[in-house]
Amino acid sequence: MKRIVLLLCSMIIMTSCAKTFYQVFTVSPENAIYSPNGSPVYVNDGLEFTYNFWGANGKVRFIIYNSNDYDVIVDLTKSAFIRNNIAEDYYQNRQYETRIATGIYKSSKYEQSVCVNKEDGTSTLVNYLGTTRDVALHGSSESASNEVGNIVKREWETAIVRNEPEVVRIPAKSAKVFFTFNVNGTRISSARLKANSYYSPIVFSKSTTPLEFRNRICVYKEGCTPSYYDMNFYIKGIGNVKSISGMANPIRFYIPYSSKLKKTDYNDELLDTSRKSSSSTNSGRFVVTQSSQQAKNINSETTESANYYNRRIDKATTKEELGIIKKEIEIDVQNGKITKETANILYLQIDELLASLK
Rounded to the nearest 10 degrees, what angle do helices 319-334 and 300-315 cross at? Predict the structure, then answer.
């Protein structure tokens, strides 16, 4: 009996000792400009594609802003997300179900309350005095207790089923948000990646990256020939950290993991595998313009300077080179040739490369 108790205690202690760490990935957008908040932006033909990858597994969230005076249509049947040359269609003929709880709920505190359903699985009770309260409701004719022990009962529930659209219309001078795929949900377990209190990533070039991906979006004006917009990205940095506090950045994402790791879980070969084939891209499709509303906030001289420094940082191989680039950026900030926000993004890239050269 004592052995069983000791075994259980040891298991509890071992479980409680497991900590959550984070593997952080840095994305390199090819031929992109940057918004003031650091989001990669691709602009062409009056369309602006703005990306933000921050979050678990790198949700590919992007906004398409249509600055034209006419509507455009995004054809999901001809659009794809391509990861290491494997394409996945945006349109997959899915169905989405929304459950709406309706009816009258009674309780001593919320008498004659109407229930309004919410997407997160809770419902808000609104009485005729305007008082509201959230309660969890699951399944037809079930009940939930409020904070004073009274019962709030749901009378009935309806479900609305809608089919996934094949096309999405974006009106003139407006935007729509898209998010379907994750960049990566699989952590790379390597003896070379140890959790630190600071971000010290392994740095990759496009030829050595373990993961590259692109977004191919088909857009057209009604009655006109469709245009295909290819936006290319690759993972240029991977590092493990103990906390992601203060690390939020549109060109980063993370994968949480437990501190308990067996050597048999290591897959170092992923870090040493060069890209075996290069996908045909159309990166030249995008031209840095000032045609859309958000792009107007990006000074053209700043954009040229940012692209210039991005190229130099990518080619830099020594600490001395990176130090010189950093000083030149500081001078350009003082002279107003580059914004502080853009400079901070460039400093971030320089610091990551300096950490890898230690």
Answer: 170
